[in-house]
Amino acid sequence: MSSDALKEEKDAKKYLEKCYKINDKNHIILNNLANIYLKEGNLSKAEKFYLKSLELKDDYLLGIINIAIFYQNVGRLVESKKFYLKAIELSPERISIYFNISRIDKNFINEDKVEYLKKIMKNKKIESIEMGYGFFILAEHERKKQSHIKEIEYLEKAHEYTFNEKINKNKRTLNYWQNIIPLKYNKFNFTNENNQHELTNYKPLFIIGLPRSGSTMVEAILSSGNTMIKTLGESSIINGVIVTTHNELQKDENKKIDLNIINNKVFEIMNGRNFLNQKNKIFVDKSLENFFYIDTILKIFPNAKFINTFRNIEDNIIAIFQQSLTKLSWTHTIENILKYIDSYLKVMEFFTKKYPDKIFLLNLTELTGKLEETSKKLYNFCNLKWNYEALDFYNRKDLFISTASNIQIRKKIENYDYDKYRPYKHLLENFYDKYDWLNQ
Fold first, then answer.
1. CA 362 to CA 308: how far, in whole Å?
2. What is the pLDDT of residues 157-177, one digit of tens each?
């Protein structure tokens, strides 16, 4: 988020709160205030205002969807499904609602619903993103039937429609992740390095790596111990600040990064969003792309530590491809996923050698197979005191997860399934000669 966007958000909050004092019966104002409180991490206030909005207008579709998503992200799945079903009553042809329910209730999509959705998808006026969600639903339905060829066909269409929804933006960000940052991550030049800043004394924990590698589980484990740790989720603050304040980096090889500017912007955003824990100076950020910015982060937060979550790389590729990760432009073809992972492996090899004491390598197989032992090692690396509560995260009532793992994380940890992705390995056959890290 840029400082201008942050100012707009603050101004919007002041304006809406002022409007609310004048008229507390406007359902739109209440809903918009709830959205702001949610961004600030004030879950109780967000819920209160979402429900107040619906008390005033119980057929307010946007409000119904918002509260359904809210309950989904806090793990109150029965309540979430209730509101999603109400949303379907009001908008029976909105496929994204069916997609969200299908994540909560794996038995929701049956043959009748599949045929109904296929009829909706024949409508040429339907939005590209809605078509994408439709094909993800169809792919999941075929997966249940072990019809993997048809599943892959639907997944390819789902990703194509999803990418095309914001095609210009996706092309720009894809170019950044493929052709710009992988060539510059170890060539940053910094100015104003020695200036002390408010952020210097913080001890953040950055979870980095690839999606679908256990990162959400690690975030939940770290935030469920005795120490009160604020979690920022996938904030993308570092990437956002660097891109918006030093856009010239994309063209100028010699452009220096002004740490004064970076420090001020990062502090402004984090402080403005109540992200900074003044008491223990610790927070968790799960912006996975931060592995590209380890040098920069250590300039901002010299006490930072990094947890790199990983799993069997071929399984990880398929897991990403099967998922609807709409905000990640590189996830929509196997080829682009492999290019991104190739960069990730090279970058992590570089930084693991450069900062061996700063980076903890956490294998998902070890975490699920030796949960207590591995979590103790994790806590020790983070200089935190471990207790059994950390492993009871799935029972927490205040655990807010907005990522693709928000349903899975509510269950007790299961041992790694080595056979789950075996039927899909043929998708990688054409790439074995190009990437020597495949099939190792």
1. 6
2. 999 999 999 999 999 999 999
Strand partners for 285? 206
* Tokens 């170019």 belong to residue: 175
Q: In what helix (H) or strand (E) does residue 36 lie, and over which residues does it extend?
A: helix 27-39
Q: Which of 92, 123, 158 is the C-terminal boundary of a domain?
A: 92
Residue that finishes a domain, picked among 47, 71, 92: 92
Measured CA to CA, the distance from residue 379 to residue 384 in angstroms comes to 5
Note the helical H segments in 307-423.
Answer: 313-321, 334-354, 364-369, 371-381
Looking at the structure, do residues 87 and 229 belong to the same domain, yes or no?
no
**Whole-number Å distance between alpha carbons of 208 and 289:** 6
Contacting residues for 225 by C-beta, under 8 A, at least 6 apart: 379, 384, 385, 386, 387, 389, 390
Structural domain includes residue 417? yes
Q: What is the CA radius of gyration of the chain?
A: 22
In angstroms, rounded to a whole number, what is the distance separating the alpha carbons of residues 425 and 439?
9
- 295-354 pLDDT, tens per residue? 999 999 999 999 999 999 999 999 999 999 999 999 999 999 999 999 999 999 999 999
Residue 146: alpha-carbon gap to chain centroid: 28
Q: Do the domain assignments include residue 283?
A: yes
Q: Determine what percent of the chain falls in helix, strand and coil, rounding each to the nearest 5.
A: 60, 5, 35
CATH number of the domain enclosing 403: 3.40.50.300
Q: Is residue 125 part of a domain?
A: no
Fill in the DSSP letter of residue 125.
T
Return the structure tokens found at 330. 């590189």
CATH number at residue 60: 1.25.40.10
Tell whether 195 is covered by a domain: no
Q: State the DSSP H helix or E strand holding residue 189, giving kind and residue range, or none if neither.
A: strand 189-191
**Total tally of structural domains belonging to the chain:** 2
pTM as predicted: 0.91
Which residues in 263-275 are b (16+ Cβ under 10 Å) and which e?
bbbbbbbbebbeb
Q: What is the Cα–Cα distance from 195 to 110, expressed in whole angstroms? A: 61
Q: Which of 79-88, 230-239, 283-292, 347-356 has the lowest mean pLDDT?
A: 230-239
Please give the Cα distance from 54 to 201 (Å, whole number).
44
Tell me the residue range of the domain where 233 lies: 200-431
Q: Are residues 85 and 227 in the same domain?
A: no
Residues 87 and 214 both lie in one domain: no
**Residue 224, token pair as written in the block:** 């469920």
